[in-house]
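dumping this here so i dont lose it
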């Protein structure tokens, strides 16, 4: 009886400690994610996000920035070389003209529905700091930005010119349980996963070279990833794009396609509009995750990913992701349990696959 009571108590203690460690890891993921989400970085203007990622890297890392603006960290040595790519940029607008009345003609940077931004606050990220305004439809229905300054000269005096990027203000907010909402979870969650994996990486476990890349200008055509792919060429054995799995896990979604429930773990993005991951690698990765008790889903979704830029070099792309509700909207929703699972998956792939 006493032995049984002791074992029961020991099991309970182990369970409590395990849950405490899990809660701590989830809290850490939320802290890193919040700091990255609240940086602004429309495609072509990713500098603040890149600087925030660089500040989170472990002391031993030796980051470099290439000609495109991608941030690189290389760890370990030897073959086969494996690369991870998460992108720094977010959707938004760029100024194409400043009208006489001070309103701004805009061009979308990335794919989204402009109606989601109509009548919302705007921020013009000018050379002299952010200038607040509002997104409004003009007479033709196109979205323009009004900074309420009244003239072209007044707008230019605030450091806003052709090419200036605009976003809507954003913040990271925790919801009930382990859910969170914000804008630009795509791809700040992928960037968070790479940061967390590097912070936790046991370099003594590495059997080959692993490259971590935070890419630029993904939303406007995978431009940064293309530069990285050309630099690495056929020297990469496998690439893992780390990006969103646009999930049908929403109250009004049809669940026959793209379903990966929030809270059920990371996702292998086995099929999307740009890539089909090799079946043998998908099966091998699922087995790896199972051995390490990492919750992992897999499925097909829409969109493209940075890894497909490596296809012309014959490099297999096995994208890994997390499920996201309301993608490319001002109120994306994710589950921090999935963010933590993704970070663990990146770490295990680097150390053991």
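and the seq i came up w/
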């Amino acid at each position: 009886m006493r032995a049984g009571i002791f074992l029961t108590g020991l099991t309970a203690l182990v369970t409590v400690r395990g849950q405490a460690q899990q809660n701590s890891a989830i809290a850490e993921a939320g802290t890193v994610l919040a700091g990255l989400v609240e940086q602004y970085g429309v495609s072509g203007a990713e500098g603040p996000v890149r600087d925030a990622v660089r500040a989170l890297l472990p002391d031993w890392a030796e980051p470099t920035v290439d000609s495109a603006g991608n941030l690189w960290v290389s760890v370990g040595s030897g073959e086969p070389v494996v690369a991870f790519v998460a992108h720094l940029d977010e959707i938004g607008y760029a100024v194409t003209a400043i009208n006489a009345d001070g309103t701004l003609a805009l061009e979308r940077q990335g794919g989204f529905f402009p109606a989601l931004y109509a009548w919302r606050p705007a921020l013009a990220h000018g050379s002299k700091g952010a200038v607040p305004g509002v997104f409004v439809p003009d007479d033709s229905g196109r979205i323009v930005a009004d900074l309420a300054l009244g003239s072209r000269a007044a707008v230019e005096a605030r450091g806003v010119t052709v090419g200036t990027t605009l976003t809507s203000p954003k913040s990271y907010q925790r919801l009930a349980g382990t859910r969170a909402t914000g804008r630009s979870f795509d791809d700040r969650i992928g960037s968070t996963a790479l940061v967390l994996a590097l912070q936790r990486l046991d370099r003594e476990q590495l059997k080959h070279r692993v490259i971590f890349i935070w890419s630029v200008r993904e939303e406007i055509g995978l431009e940064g990833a293309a530069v990285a792919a050309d630099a690495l060429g056929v020297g990469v054995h496998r690439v893992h794009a780390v990006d969103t799995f646009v999930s049908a896990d929403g109250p009004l979604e049809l669940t026959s396609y793209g379903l990966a429930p929030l809270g059920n773990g990371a996702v292998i993005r086995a099929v999307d509009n740009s890539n089909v991951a090799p079946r043998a690698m998908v099966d091998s990765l699922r087995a790896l995750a199972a051995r390490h008790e990492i919750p992992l889903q897999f499925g097909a979704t829409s969109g493209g990913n940075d890894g497909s830029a490596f296809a012309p070099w014959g490099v297999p792309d096995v994208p890994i992701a997390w499920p996201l509700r309301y993608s490319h909207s001002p109120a994306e929703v994710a589950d921090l349990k999935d963010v933590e699972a993704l970070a663990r998956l990146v770490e295990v792939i680097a150390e053991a696959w």
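The chain has a mean pLDDT of 93.
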